[in-house]
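Hi C.,

You asked whether I'd gotten around to modeling the 201-residue construct. I have! Everything is below, sequence then structure, no commentary in between.
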Amino acid sequence: MFENPWFEIDDPEDEFGFDAAELAFATALRQQAGSWDVPHAYSWVGRTEDESSLLAFVELSDEHRRLSLIDIGVHLVGSSVRGDRLHNQLYFLPDRPTSLAMEAVGSPQELAERTATWFETLLRKPIVRHEWEHHGQVYASRYLFADTGEGLVQSYHQTLAPSEQAEALTRAGHVHGRGWIQTSGLGRPDRVVDIRGETTA
């Protein structure tokens, strides 16, 4: 297993801006993560954009394609911690908790233990990539948690897709935002590729 330096401080100078409880939490979290036997993931500890809380962050990705799939993390404020899927640039927690959410209250050590258990559970979740092909080329893909079917990232390349398929998907309502075609209307994928999780560790 590749040795991964979990939860290093993003900016070492920030350590001097952390209070005693924050430093205790960050230290305990690193210690907990040191015993993990999970696939590699990028992580760090720092502050949120508005500097209102300590942030512990993990990015799950398809490393072979250098593609970020989901950012997860916790915000520590005082004696409480909240974790969930994060905004992929500002690292804010969602207004409404998702199915991945966690929340706990306690001492820095207790919060670090709860947080470490939460992170480890998510790091072990199997992720797969569904692929659809046309004339030997992948024209659509969708990443998802294999155990729950929750989607993470998807793509659709109309120029590679079967003729008139995009128009049919649009008419059927498989679009989002400004015309982004969704893979939900494509049916069974041509291939399922294991990306990470216990099946690929």
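If it helps when you're writing up: Residues 58 and 182 are 26 Å apart (CA to CA).

Thanks,
B.
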